Amino acid sequence: MDLMPDDLVERAVRACGRTPAAAARAVLEFNRAVIDSVEPAAVAVKPQIAFYEAFGCEGLRAYAETIGHARARGLLVIGDVKRNDIGSTAAAYAQAHLPGPPASPPAPLPLGEGRVRAAWPAASEFHADAITINALFGSDGVKPFLERARQSGAGLFVLVRTSNPSSAELQDLDCGGEPFYVRVAALVEEWGACDRGASGYSLVGAVAGATFPAALRRLRQAMPHAVLLVPGLGAQGGTVADVTGAFDAQGRGAIVNASRSVIYAFRDGAGGGPWQQAVRRAAESLRCELWQATHGALGTAD
Amino acid sequence: MDLMPDDLVERAVRACGRTPAAAARAVLEFNRAVIDSVEPAAVAVKPQIAFYEAFGCEGLRAYAETIGHARARGLLVIGDVKRNDIGSTAAAYAQAHLPGPPASPPAPLPLGEGRVRAAWPAASEFHADAITINALFGSDGVKPFLERARQSGAGLFVLVRTSNPSSAELQDLDCGGEPFYVRVAALVEEWGACDRGASGYSLVGAVAGATFPAALRRLRQAMPHAVLLVPGLGAQGGTVADVTGAFDAQGRGAIVNASRSVIYAFRDGAGGGPWQQAVRRAAESLRCELWQATHGALGTAD
């Protein structure tokens, strides 16, 4: 809340006081403007559900409406939820965050038949085109997400090597000559083996932080069929040069994510004009830098 | 929804149709009755947020009201959320799920001062007495939870060895002569070192599944200051004999959790009477079995 434009926060406080409802209102207005501003330069947005959860049910309503607005603008939505649990519980998370089969209207059968009760419709308001998940539980905590993703063509990004400073404590532990994260990477390739599209990439991708360029290059080799979701650019310290190793030889196979450096671009005071313009410029400039780093001069590749 | 008592589900459908709102209504009514039934036998309840999230904002409202009802009945609440992320995001999850300092009214200062904006109050509706977290991100993904828990005397249960069949895939990987989960256990002891109460136990506990008794005994030794939260009893296959290794020599230091075997106890058709009675009997009988397994005959220890 302390990073958003003043007038926007003041409007929400006038309407709802200093409450979670005001926060949710301000965040949603901010998000709509950010989405409209970055849309020409971005392929996807990645809302982080934690910041909505902190404002309770009101906050989560804003999360749902943010997803709706991004989809209406033609952007893909990656729900950054990092969910994880045992199989039966992972299935509930998958229902919450991923769409099901394309046409599955609730069966209009009378109550009292067990099968009808089992098919109770879940809510769709948190459904995203892809989500991030944590694989610590192993295959049976991942398969419910995979089954659900297959039904709708959604995607998964499994945490492999995260962007934070202490990620090495557990993720780099030596497991028989290889770091732990490389063992997770092997599972990611295995989980995605049956679900590869015409591109050669599977619906099981991986999160690999921009802040560890050597690990990123290694993971590009270890998971040739996984789209890499690369956070950590900008505020966390990763640079465009750091992320080039995440792309394949054709300059594909990675989604690079910048959050704070784009959405709060107006806070450095440079450029002038309305705040939305600074956000748009930051997204556009990042797009150009990334394109040049992976394809050479703009327009020389498809 | 297919496991709950018929009349309760039918009432909700009559009121709201076959919708997420009806599901939320039925679940809340069911939970209130379960909580009232198990209260004499239980020290805590552990709602699993995934099953509420599947019903969207309506479902999460039922999660919040379930917490409120359990606290009103004097039960501790363990929010089974398994949240995890990098530091700045973990802080938002901590605000969402753990109470802050005892007296922190929003400062009544005028808008426009940076410090006031930063202190925007989070919502409290998901606040539990303790939560489960995933430690894959290492220390900087855990510390925001720890700082928040310290402020209010709340507790954390870090996933160390989970109860599901495939947990061995990653958690048992050999890391320099020790399984991965024992390395996580060492971190749990370290994170809790400064926060031990008169009991000798710290506010940083650990999740260790009932389904792996040998691991459970090993973890009791490896984490002498961590309360163990032990899921997997009943429906997942763990027995009372399997969990005795989780307790210390005084029969303390563990919270044993049974979910499906208690809340759906009425479905085996034994015993007769209203469904709530079967739930109460299942909880009471489990309490006695656990007490006898850890303290000998009932009433011989405090």
State the gist of this model.
By secondary structure, chain A is α/β, with parallel strands linked by helices. Chain A has 13 helices and nine strands.
Order of helices and strands of chain A: HHEHHEHHEHEHEEHEHEHEHH
**Helix count of chain A?**
13
Kindly state the percentage of residues in helix of chain A: 40-55%
| N- to C-terminal distance of chain A | 40 Å
Oligomerization state: homodimer
Number of strands of chain A: 9
| Uncertain segments of chain A | 112-118
Largest interface: A-B, 77 and 77 residues
Main β-sheet, spatial strand arrangement of chain A: 1-2-3-4-7-8-9
C-alpha-based Rg of chain A, rounded: 20 Å
Report strand % of chain A.
5-15%
Helix/strand-derived category of chain A reads alpha/beta
Quick one: biggest sheet of chain A?
7 strands, parallel
- What is the general shape of chain A? globular
Mean pLDDT over the full residue set of chain A = 91
Record keyword descriptors for this entry.
45% helix; 302 residues; two-stranded antiparallel sheet; alpha/beta; seven-stranded parallel beta sheet; 13 helices; homodimer
Descriptive report:
The structure is a homodimer of 302-residue chains. Chain A is of the alpha/beta class and 302 residues long. Helices cover 45% and strands 14% of the residues of chain A. Chain A has helices at residues 6-16, 20-38, 50-53, 56-72, 87-97, 114-118, 139-152, 168-171, 180-191, 213-222, 240-243, 260-263, 275-295, and strands at residues 44-45, 76-83, 130-133, 155-161, 174-175, 178-179, 204-208, 228-233, 254-258. In chain A, the strands form two sheets. A seven-stranded parallel sheet of chain A has the order 1-2-3-4-7-8-9. Chain A has a two-stranded antiparallel sheet with strand order 5-6. In chain A, strand 3, helix 7 (139-152) and strand 4 (155-161) form a beta-alpha-beta unit. Mean pLDDT of chain A is 91; it is low at 112-118. At the A-B interface, helix 1, helix 3, helix 4, helix 5 and helix 6 of A face helix 1, helix 3, helix 4, helix 5 and helix 6 of B.
